[in-house]
Amino acid sequence: MSQKVRVRCFQLYYGTNHALKNIDLDLAENQVTALIGPSGCGKSTFLRSINRMNDMIKGVRTTGTIHIDGQNIYGEKVYLVELRKKVGMVFQQPHPFPLSIYDNVAYGPRLHGIRDKKRLDEIVERTLTEANLWDEVKDRLHRSALGMSGGQQQRLVLARVLAVQPEVILMDEPASALDPISTERLEELIMRLKDQYTIIIVTHNMQQAARVSDTAVFFLNGEIVESGPTDQIFTNP
Ligand code: ADP
Ligand code: ADP
């Protein structure tokens, strides 16, 4: 099993707030890793560090390294557009663009220069199928994405990420705005996608972490306090 993401002595400060302290972690590919811990312990900050989303926040300072496939994303000559193509992100609230279902999925491929209608059609169908959404939306691809249910919107957002063929998918509490049935469908989807992607999910729901993850990482006050295989961590002696 090869290591996809390698984090060494990583620290992050928001101004004087030391939000991540000396993070060392290796994440294997084709696995789901759950980041667990109380509110404010640094889970989202760490997740956003893996595609440099924190760069947009004023006063952020980092030290240490995060390698993805051997490249230090905090090193020199990192192109953020390329990084975010490789490392996609799904947020807590589903937020489709106010465009048609089709145009939401085609957005990323178009951004990366794909213009051919037939090719875009293929990508849209393949990606919506991969996100378990094709059968539900194939007859209304050109209607607004904003008319979909919350659960469908979250799968659409995931499809939008899958459409640019990322290698790593970051999810920040992706089910917290969903009802139980939509949550179950999303969890099934996550477990199916890990064959092809490296998935990192933030959750404060222990049952969810136990259900979907292969590796569990516990944060407290900006530090990793425990990590290991989920089946060992969640089995009480
Ligand atoms: P969660 O605990 O679910 O991550 P929060 O309520 O802590 O949600 O954060 C919501 C948003 O506010 C996030 O985008 C986070 O980055 C931002 N945020 C959290 N703490 C601060 C802060 N001290 N200053 C500015 N923004 C913050
Ligand atoms: P969690 O995701 O575990 O709830 P966060 O990563 O959101 O934790 O927050 C970790 C720490 O960083 C908290 O002290 C929070 O207030 C702070 N923080 C988070 N986002 C921001 C931000 N955008 N600006 C300033 N401080 C932030």
Automatic annotation (TrEMBL):
<keyword id="KW-0813">Transport</keyword>
<dbReference type="InterPro" id="IPR003439">
    <property type="entry name" value="ABC_transporter-like_ATP-bd"/>
</dbReference>
<keyword id="KW-0067">ATP-binding</keyword>
<dbReference type="InterPro" id="IPR017871">
    <property type="entry name" value="ABC_transporter-like_CS"/>
</dbReference>
<dbReference type="InterPro" id="IPR005670">
    <property type="entry name" value="PstB-like"/>
</dbReference>
<dbReference type="GO" id="GO:0005315">
    <property type="term" value="F:phosphate transmembrane transporter activity"/>
</dbReference>
<dbReference type="InterPro" id="IPR027417">
    <property type="entry name" value="P-loop_NTPase"/>
</dbReference>
<protein>
    <submittedName>
        <fullName>Phosphate ABC transporter ATP-binding protein</fullName>
    </submittedName>
</protein>
<dbReference type="Pfam" id="PF00005">
    <property type="entry name" value="ABC_tran"/>
</dbReference>
<feature type="domain" description="ABC transporter">
    <location>
        <begin position="5"/>
        <end position="237"/>
    </location>
</feature>
<dbReference type="GO" id="GO:0035435">
    <property type="term" value="P:phosphate ion transmembrane transport"/>
</dbReference>
<dbReference type="GO" id="GO:0005524">
    <property type="term" value="F:ATP binding"/>
</dbReference>
<dbReference type="GO" id="GO:0016887">
    <property type="term" value="F:ATP hydrolysis activity"/>
</dbReference>
<dbReference type="InterPro" id="IPR003593">
    <property type="entry name" value="AAA+_ATPase"/>
</dbReference>
<keyword id="KW-0547">Nucleotide-binding</keyword>
<dbReference type="GO" id="GO:0016020">
    <property type="term" value="C:membrane"/>
</dbReference>
